[in-house]
Amino acid sequence: MASTIEDDIQKSAVRRRVEEEKFMVENLREVSRQEYLEKREQKKIDELKHDIEDEQFLFERLDKLSEAEKREHVRKQKIVELVSKKKCEEADDYRIPENYDNLEGGRVNQKKRFSVASQRYREEHEIHPEQAWEENQVEKAKLNFGSKDRKQTEYQFVFGDQIEFIKANGIESSNDANVDVEKLQTSRNSKLKEDRKALPIYPYKDALLQAVHDYQVIIIVGETGSGKTTQIPQYLHEAGYTRSGGMIGCTQPRRVAAMRVAARVSNEMGSKLGHEVGYSIRFEDCTCEKTILKYMTDGMLLREFLTEPDLSSYSVIMIDEAHERTLSTDVLFGLIKDVARARPHFKLLISSATLDAEKFSDYFDCAPIFKIPGRRFPVEIHHIKEPISDYLDAAVTTALQIHVTQPQGDGDILIFLTGQEEIETAENIIKNRIKALGTKIAELITCPIYANLPTELQAKIFEPAPEGARKVVLATNIAETSLTIDGIKHVIDTGFCKIKCYNPRTGTESLLVTPISKGSANQRAGRSGRTGPGKCFRLYTEHSYTNDLEDNTIPEIQRTNLANVVLLLKSLGIINLLNFDFMDPPPAEALLKALELLFALGALDKDGKLTKVGERMSEFPLDPMLSKMIVASDKYKCSAEIIGIAAMLSVGNSIFYRPKDDRQVQADNAWMNFHIGNVGDHIALLKVYNSWKETKFSTQWCYENYIQVRSMKKARDIREQLQGRLERVGIDSTSNVNDLEAIKKSIISGFFPHSARLLKNGSYRTVKHPQTCHIHPSSGLSQVPPRWVVYHELVLTTKEYMRQVTELKQEWLVDVAPHYYQLKDVEDSSSKKMPCRIGLASSK
Q1: Which of 262, 417, 787, 804 has its CA 20 to 30 A from that of 527?
Q2: Rounded to whole angstroms, what are the CA distances from 361 to 217, 333, 520?
Q3: Residue 701, pLDDT score
């Protein structure tokens, strides 16, 4: 009994200690917070004093400040005076320490007791995380401000090198649509129904539906923002074109546009995305059996011809942004033209944002042209006086000029750049310059938009800027026609875009920065005149616009690799490609090169007909070489590994992430861990995917290894689809992860035309169609180059670079492709002495 009472007493004492410690910790936090706030208050006062001293020193006399800055200067002085006065008035008397006991209640005053107990937990120089951050910012400010030798005006970061423009003939306002300006300003807060009625296309709804009823094929010309992409499919649905069970399909040249437009239309129709309204892009299908309005990339509709050559599931097809003339769009023209002839009740709408509709009309048997007004307000166009050397810096400077000189509420800024790298660079420059200016100018919010940007960040460009702030959108040419961004009043046109070019002689593909066409320039200018009078600042001279720019962009079909398209057309039973009804025929040399490659891969026989291997290859929505690699994996019993590699290659070069701070060393070490043993880039990608899979697709693992989780999720989705395709073509899912030779032979089976041997000078020479090239610095084999390699692609940047490289044995080329290589092609020069560190990989 006594022991039980003693145990209870001990337990009670333990509970009291725990409760007391808990109470003490909670109060410790409160004390720490209060002390931090007091220190922070003093630091802010010190900062104000430093600001006052710096401003007095920098400007010497206050008449150099603006009125607003004078008021701000006086305000700071008053704050310092009030605080100083308050501290002087505070009593500094000595107080007798009070005891902890409340004599009346007979209880201990825990708060008073705690104030002494907490002393043991206090550090002599406590540093709060927020305080550390603020001190870091103060130190940075000291480095950038207050130097006696520094001669700068208030907006030196903005006006250091101003860009001078000459006003040119602008774009006049259109009288076709009488839209109330006040209604436009309040349309954002109005209902979706009112938004739809406010669009320029709405007054022409009945006339458009009548034209669709009367004619099978119509060419629709409408400026970007007229509402044709979002409204026409809805009008047709409301008119009953989906009652018989047929869908209304609308193609887009870009994935981002297809997804964004589908989301907008589903919102307008009050349905969940993926139900009545859905989208379909490569490796992502967001539709169901209920879908009646389907937005998709033109490439996806092209692949639907494989399973449904007459497109019987569709009652209407609208090919949007036809003026962009992508490769898939041009092929679609020839195929869907035959569908319209075979199905009298099928409706075909060709939508274009430019005025070259006569060419489309002639191609589609003199189809009628229906014009919809779009631009409502005039646009002033300004050209630079003299050519510039750095258009990126000039674009940033111009944007800051606009932001500082134009009143707030005067509209947002849109800058056209060539790609993700330029957009990220411009974003960093703008943020750094805005940060250097501090609070002296209003807030400027940067909103980038490009294909690889996460969806939640892409949506930011459509959000209005907060009160007192301005938004600057950094976009590629996707913002020319595919996306409509409200609130843009100022457009900065760099005059360049990035297009894909293909050299059939060397087999080299490259993304080249080239001047835009006049058509693109006019499209860019028009983005500023949607909601009010706008301005376009062109970073090229008026002489360049008149004399140097082409009227229209060269169609993609005349400047790209045609192997994928030829395989698709062959699988559709089109034998004579030279007689195919192209709007603009591709170069004969490019067609022949594609036929040669497909024959070498075994997809075509000597008569140009599709083989069994070719039929299997056509089922995969991949480049023919990747498809052949997967088909060959059946022979080497490693299909599970090969579809993983194919999925990772399909994502592109966005797997690894290298931060721009002191974590670069950690990121490099993480990258090297996957390349241990010089296994090659293909195997390294496989190791990345398998390691991620072992962690049950952990996001945290991606962060720890500096890997883009978004890219990995996309690769996982692609792999799942490829897994389904394996079953469809009768390939068993087999794994042979430890047999690297089998995996490499499967890779070579698809990419044997992409082989190269090492030269004595450290460069490489392709075996067929000899060409000098180099291993890309991002490759794991760039420091220990093997004698023989196979590569995924050859790209032209500063040099001819091989990307995604793997070592091979030269005899494998003859084993895998005896019809393509002979022994003399792969004779080894290993007997000749190689320079130091060259050819080391093969010896490891």
Answers
A1: 262
A2: 9, 12, 21
A3: 95
> What is the Cβ-side half-sphere exposure of residue 377, based on CA atoms within 13 angstroms?
21
Record the tokens describing residue 297, joined without a space.
């990339």
CA distance 354 to 360: 11
**Residue 127 to residue 71: CA distance in whole angstroms:** 34
Q: Are 764 and 805 in contact (CB under 8 A)?
A: no
The sheet carrying 347-352 orders its strands as 284-286, 277-281, 293-297, 247-252, 314-319, 347-352, 217-222, 369-372
Distance CA(113)–CA(476), nearest Å, equals 65
The per-residue pLDDT for range 187-211, each reduced to its tens digit, is 444 567 888 888 889 999 999 999 9
What pTM value is reported for the model?
A: 0.69
> With contact defined as beta carbons under 8 Å apart, do 274 and 286 qualify?
yes
Q: What percent of the chain has pLDDT over 90?
A: 50
- Among residues 276, 335, 278, the alpha carbon closest in space to that of 311 is found at 335
The tokens 């070069």 sit on which residue? 653
Classify domain 389-557 by CATH architecture. 3-Layer(aba) Sandwich (3.40)
Residue-wise pLDDT tens digits, 718-761: 999 999 999 899 999 999 999 999 999 999 999 999 999 999 99
Residues 6+ apart with CB under 8 A from 38: none
**Domain range list for the chain:** 17-87+109-118+130-151, 181-372, 389-557, 752-843
Secondary structure E strands in 298-387: 314-319, 347-352, 369-372, 379-384
CATH numeric code, 181-372: 3.40.50.300
376 pLDDT tier (thresholds 50, 70, 90): low
Exposed e or buried b per residue across 67-99, where buried means at least 16 C-beta atoms within 10 angstroms of its C-beta: eeeeebbeebeeebeeeeeeeeeeeeeeeeeee
